[in-house]
Each structure stands twice: as C-alpha cells, then as structure tokens.
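Subject: for your reference before the review

Hello V.,

The reviewers asked for a structural picture of the protein, and I figured it would be easier to keep everything in one thread rather than splitting it across files. Below is the amino acid sequence we used in the manuscript, unchanged from the supplementary table.
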Amino acid sequence: MNIFKKIKRKNIEIAICLGLISAICLSFAHFDAACEDLRKNVLRLHIIANSNAKEDQQIKLMIRDEILKNSETIFEDCDNLDSAMLTVGQNIDIINEIANSVLSENGFSYTAKAYIGDTYFETREYEDFTLPAGTYKSLIIDLGKAEGKNWWCVVFPEVCLKASSEERAQLSDSASQESSKIAESKDKYKLKFKVVEWYEELKRMFKKK
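And here is what came back from the structure prediction:
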C-alpha cells in the first residue's frame, strides 16, 4: 500500500512540475509574441561612425541630430512600418544628402551611405522604454569605413524626438497597446527581456551552423 501511495505521490509531483513548465512556456511564448510585434512595427535608425576617433564620433551625433530633425516631415504621413519603409526608399537620396552635407560642411573627406537593411540589436533600454533583442528593419547610415561605435534609436514611430517635443510619437502609434505597454514597463520585465535575448542569441547560433 505504501508503494502505491509513493507512486501516486510521485505522479502528482511530476504532473505539478509539468504543469509549471507548461505555464512558464506559455507565459514566455506570449511575451515573445509581444516582442515580435514590436520588432515588426518599428523602424530603427542605425548610424555607424567612421571610427572611434573623437571627431568621427562627434560628427556621427551631428548627423543624427540633422536626420532626426528632418524625420519629422519625412515620416509625417506614415501610419505603419510598410509605409515608413516606402517613404525611406522615396527619400533615401535626401537622407544621403543631409548626411553628406554635414560631413562636407565640417571638413570631412569621407562620405555617408544610407540604406534599408536588417540589423540585429541586443536588448536596449531607452529613457522611457525597452526594445527586446532581435532583428529589426533599420535605416542604416554608414559613415566612411563604418568601423566605429554606432548610435541607434527608433525613427518610426518618431520616439527619438526630444521629450519636450509636442509632436513626439509613442510606440503604440505603430505597435499594439499590449506590446507597447510591455516595452514601457521595462523594470517589470527585465528578466523576461534577458530571456528573450538569450533565446534570440541561440536562434542566431543555430542559423549560422
């Protein structure tokens, strides 16, 4: 009788463990889906400096400021990622001109090249929100050899604009309310964001094999 009780108890313990594992997996799957919603609904700006020399890093930030200043008009009629990417494609020459004008006016001999591409980012905490690790559509601007430290933010929706700007956009302007709320509650989900980063890194490792 004692043996049967032990077996029954063991089976209950196993069932409880499996139930907990299932609950954790479901919770992670739900969180990862919200993260994927963010990845598919924002356009990130990725500016890569020529080098890590002080002057190259300074000009990178100057170009950033000009691009963000002009993004207010470039993206004003966009309401989703597809329209934002289409707009970038239509204005890529203007974006290149802005970046190259800043370089030329400040005496730099190298040039800038802007294009749309896929970029992998680690989990990134901004002042008001966190974006999960993963691959995002990006407006990439290579400066010269593009061998220096980079700068990135979100150019659509225009959350890179200064907090004082009345026109500053919100993540919820493009992504779902649920995923936006998760991104804006960064302290609450720090561990889950870290798990997502580990998961994305594993996916990248397996893809390389």
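For the response letter, the relevant points are probably these. The first strand starts at residue 43 and ends at 48. Strands lie at 43-48, 112-121, 124-125, 130-131, 134-143, 150-156.

Happy to draft the paragraph if you're swamped.

O.
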